[in-house]
Amino acid sequence: MASSVTVVPCNLINFKTNDGLVLQGMLTGPKKSARGSKCVIYVHGMTGNFYSSSIFYALSKDLSAHGMVSFAINTRGHDILCGIKTEGMSHGGIHGTAVEDFDGCLEDISAAIGAIKRLGYREIILCGHSTGCQKIVHYMSRSKDNSTSRLILISPADDFAITKRKYGNNLGTKIRAAQKLINSGKGSNPNPEFEGYSPRRFLSIANQSSAEASVFDYSGHMKEYSSIKTPMLVILGSSEEWMSHNVSYYRKILEEHSGSEEMLFSAISGANHSFDGRQKILSNKIISYLLRNPCGNLHTKNKN
Fold first, then answer.
1. CA-based Rg of the chain, rounded to a whole angstrom?
2. DSSP helix, strand, coil percent of the chain (3-state; round to 5)
3. 117 and 78 in one domain?
4. Among the three residues 168, 192, 215, which one is the final residue of a domain in this structure?
5. pLDDT digits over 40-62, tens only?
6. For residue range 71-125, what is the model confidence (pLDDT) as tens digits?
7. Which of 8, 40, 92, 304 has the fewest CB atoms inside 10 Å of its own CB, making it the most exposed?
């Protein structure tokens, strides 16, 4: 069987964070946007990157067809482990999901927005998948960004619930072991006891009070999510493998906790966490949202 080849016409962009990391992103679409210099910045999830996302491939193609530009970025947490150059140094440091400091996303997203603005794009939409949703919400809550016009959150999963379900009664033991290693100065190195993640990275999703774990802790207060006024679209697949309840359960919680001026929710039937085989349907939902013509099963909650 012949293998398929995906060609994505793009420009490779280097951009620098305030703490000196040199990150990359893929800019796709027309050189001049036909729709008011609009750019969708796409933020990947855990172990993801800008160059292997089937969601972004489908979305960027459709955005281009409608005269819109998209910018998929690598955060410092891309792939499992990676080397990222620090400006002014001859060698890169070790980064990636396994050793990531979640708060680093504040610098990464800010730098991506700054790069896009310098290229002349004025309307910014942040779009995240999986942990990319946590990073966008964390950024918007902490930065009080007022230049981003809309948010698109795809598969915002409950990392704490997933971790709790995975380890069961052993979670407390795991958390104590991780904390002990951190206290002894061994918290930053990948460790097989935590499936290759560093103890510090493990606690970021296993400790219910941590910033990352609490963003979409559906059993909690979701304070950062609630603090965001920016209009948003949230999309879940009905066959999301990381959900422990049905879609209606998550929709209700997201609507109850929303502080958004306009929160839209959409469920895609049969779609899993990565929307395998349904990327086109997902893309159509997003395009319709950006063009302000609701497509199919979009539920609106307006804040008066």
1. 19
2. 35, 20, 40
3. yes
4. 215
5. 999 999 999 999 999 999 999 99
6. 999 999 999 999 999 987 767 799 999 999 999 999 999 999 999 999 989 899 9
7. 304
